[in-house]
Amino acid sequence: MSSRVTMGLAVLFLLGALFAGYWGLVLSRQPAPVAQAPVVQTDTIAAPPPGVEKPVEDPTRQPVLVLAKDIPAYEPIKADDLIVERLKVAPAGSFSSPEEAIGRMSWRPLAAGTWLTDSSFEAGGSLARMIRPGERALALSIDEIIGAGGQLSPGDYVDVLLYLPSDQTNPDRSAQTVVPALRVLSVGALMGPVNQGQQEQGISRDERAQQQKLKANARSVVVAVPEKLLSRLMLASQAGPLRLAVRSAEEKNLERYWAGDSDIALEQDTVSRNVTHFNQLSMGAARSVQVGSGEPRKPRSIEVIRGNQTAQQTP
């Protein structure tokens, strides 16, 4: 009985194996490729998917051309060196499109993030771009006393004072204002603004802050001198000690300069230049003046008696 059951199961398993093999063979056959119609390309632009909107530019912002990387000196600017930023306030004279700068070369290195203007491609150093035709930049040696206690700043206006000691050719000591109202361009390494009041963009903000800390220890100052007064100031710097007297900001001299007035020093210059001699300060000039009266003393008269006559005579 058991042998028959075993034979029946064997036959059943054999039939199942044959069926599985046949079904696997059928499924392994690939269907015939279906012919597809050729795809014809058209010039129609695919519509954007629903829900995606094109960004709308803010009409209150203006395009400003900015350097995307550092540019070495004398290297032509390429399109990939530039980016266009949209700012609420565009810097004066700034470019708005790459076409205004592509192919141009700057004589000095330009840092990334610098907005470009025509002055970016002008020749000349920082000092040359701080002065106007008819002015000269002249450096003077200073210390804490000469330089107003180390409190000078670029943009200040100063009077240059000269002390002349006595010598064989000049027995009288004197002091005078050699040149008035000179604009300070730099104090040590701290530079002032270039023309149009723009800050020099060749240094970073951190470098400028470091220069500001070293201002009190500066040993030189550069002033803008009218060409007509240049020789006088040069001669005075060798004749005796100098002092720099700071003029009040209430005079609005710097505002006048940016407004186009470059002759402030010449307007303030006088023939006498406030010359003061030492003997004007000595007490000898005051000995002939009565104390508290301001009028010169009158010599006393002497009474002369001759017999029965008397008379007053002045010696």
TrEMBL record:
Q: InterPro entries, per this entry?
A: Pilus_assmbl_Flp-typ_CpaB, RcpC_dom, SAF
Where is region (Disordered) located?
Answer: 287-315
Ranges for the SAF domain?
A: 62-122
| Residue runs in coiled coils | none
NCBIfam families documented for this protein: pilus_cpaB
Q: What is this protein called?
A: Pilus assembly protein CpaB
**What organism does this protein naturally occur in?**
Pseudomonas abietaniphila
- UniProt lineage: Bacteria, Pseudomonadati, Pseudomonadota, Gammaproteobacteria, Pseudomonadales
